[in-house]
Amino acid sequence: xxxxxxxxxxxxxxxxxxxxxxxxxxxxxxxxxxxxxxxxxxxxxxxxxxxxxxxxxxxxxxxxxxxxxxxxxxxxxxxxxxxxxxxxxxxxxxxxxxxxxxxxxxxxxxxxxxxxxxxxxxxxxxxxxxxxxxxxxxxxxxxxxxxxxxxxxxxxxxxxxxxxxxxxxx
Length: 170
Ligand code: FEO
Prior knowledge:
The chain is mainly alpha-helical.
């Protein structure tokens, strides 16, 4: 059973994961409008992963006997200067998610809520990967600066990213 405070905090993160999905959906659409379809694919996969993260919070809360409440989703940003600008926003968003997850772990420890702490550890590891992924693309974009050919090659590479459901059965 979750404390009221923990249920509220988990519910907030459930909604934040949905918001994350919206942000990546908007980023995907921006790339699509620039005909950078590989970048758009990468963001689309990211969006789906975020909705999986939300589902994991949903499942965990219901398993603990807590209801889940849907908030209004804030309007995401829809225009950026260039590809690097988009991924810098993505990285900064992921750092915010990491901070949220760390706060949830802190609360779980404070409340001696071992089950929630254990569940959050999956997200702790996932966030290392999430930040590394965004940072990796920023570095590749930086390397391709000034070379449209290099950017098109990167677009092709990002087009290879495949969606595989995350967190299933974990
Ligand atoms: Fe659900 Fe990208 O963190």
